[in-house]
């Protein structure tokens, strides 16, 4: 790929019923020193056209009302509306913000790395500077939850984080909502999840991990953004759904790759659930919900493994919960 500028970059943001977040995101984009050529808001909920119309004087932004709901399907729909000159597509979640120099820093990093020798660059994840800074511990090592090496996937299916970071890392996976992709890679590699999802947990792993064999995946430190979502006030009921979804979708991910082991996934998930249980006892109802939901999801995964049931059936059934 040749050197690019902002005229070759598009931002795609899938969203559903988040007008305040979309207005905040568009304000960030409007304040960029260098703006992308195209911004596509892939809307799966209430009409956002009134909000989006207020930004059209300062950027090329379109609100698409998607025929199917689900983060992946909404992104796929938006990809069909990219202009011909777009070479790089940023997938940005609606709860992400960044400083005015965000695009400048990205263009410098992308143009430097895309010309490096070796595998072609597929995608680049940004540095989420306010992400939790996890540390290794005896507990994490015991349950296959180590945070090092950075950005790698253990045989249990655990993806070690790479944000926040003070240097670049070649990694084995990229995040779903803070990443730029070469458009050609998106076109040549359809997302394996082709069904609706209420919460696209692990979708980034499922899509990006297989690409590591043929492409370079990079997490950069100098392209910074902020994640403005918090799960600390999650209610018990929502925690149940999130816990169940996390357990089932990670099981579905591990079943797609021979080098990832179901027994290791089960052991790792037990460790995750113990952590939620302890936090739940400390008066965090959301973590108790994650524990209860995770028990349900893990039980279904174990039963599916014993009966040799297709893991995609479990994943598809989450939309019914």
In short:
With 321 residues, this protein is an alpha/beta fold. The chain has helices at residues 19-30, 49-53, 71-79, 102-113, 138-142, 183-188, 203-208, 236-254, 262-281, 285-307, 311-317, and strands spanning 9-15, 38-43, 61-65, 88-92, 96-97, 121-128, 169-170, 178-182, 216-227.
Can you walk through the features of this model?
This protein is α/β, with parallel strands linked by helices and 321 residues long. It folds into 2 domains: 6-129 and 164-227, Spore Coat Polysaccharide Biosynthesis Protein SpsA, Chain A (Alpha-Beta Complex); 236-320, no CATH class. Helix content is 39%, strand content 16%. The protein contains 11 helices and 9 strands. Strands 1, 2, 3, 4, 5, 6, 7, 8 and 9 form a 9-stranded mixed β-sheet that branches. Helix 2 (49-53) links the parallel strand 2 and strand 3. Helix 8 runs antiparallel to helix 9 (262-281), helix 8 (236-254) packs parallel to helix 10 (285-307) and helix 9 packs antiparallel against helix 10. The longest helix has 23 residues, at 285-307. The radius of gyration is 19 Å and the shape is globular.
């Amino acid at each position: 790929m040749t050197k690019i500028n902002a005229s070759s970059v598009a931002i795609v943001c899938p969203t559903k019923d988040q007008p305040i977040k979309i207005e905040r995101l568009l304000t960030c984009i409007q304040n960029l020193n260098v703006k992308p050529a195209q911004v596509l808001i892939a809307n799966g909920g209430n009409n956002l056209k009134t909000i989006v119309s207020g930004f059209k004087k300062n950027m090329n932004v379109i609100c698409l009302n998607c025929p199917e709901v689900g983060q992946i399907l909404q992104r796929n729909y938006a990809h069909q509306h990219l202009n011909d000159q777009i070479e790089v597509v940023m997938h940005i979640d609606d709860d992400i913000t960044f400083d005015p120099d965000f695009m400048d820093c990205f263009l410098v990093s992308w143009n430097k790395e895309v010309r490096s020798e070796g595998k072609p660059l597929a995608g680049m994840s940004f540095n989420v500077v306010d992400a939790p800074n996890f540390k290794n511990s005896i507990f994490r090592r015991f349950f296959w939850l180590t945070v090092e090496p950075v950005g790698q996937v253990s045989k249990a299916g655990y993806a070690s984080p790479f944000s926040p970071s003070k240097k670049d890392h070649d990694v084995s996976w990229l995040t779903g909502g803070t990443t730029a992709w070469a458009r050609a890679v998106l076109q040549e590699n359809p997302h394996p999840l082709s069904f609706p999802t209420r919460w696209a947990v692990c979708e980034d792993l499922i899509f990006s991990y297989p690409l590591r064999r043929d492409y370079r995946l990079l997490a950069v430190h100098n392209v910074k953004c902020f994640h403005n979502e918090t799960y600390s006030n999650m209610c018990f009921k929502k925690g149940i759904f999130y816990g169940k979804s996390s357990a089932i979708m990670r099981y579905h991910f591990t079943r797609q790759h021979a080098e990832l082991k179901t027994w290791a996934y089960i052991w790792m998930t037990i460790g995750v659930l113990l952590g939620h249980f302890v936090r739940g006892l400390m008066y965090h109802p959301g973590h108790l919900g994650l524990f209860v939901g995770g028990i349900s999801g893990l039980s279904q995964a174990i039963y599916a493994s014993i009966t040799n049931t297709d893991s995609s059936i479990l994943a598809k059934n989450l939309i019914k919960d």
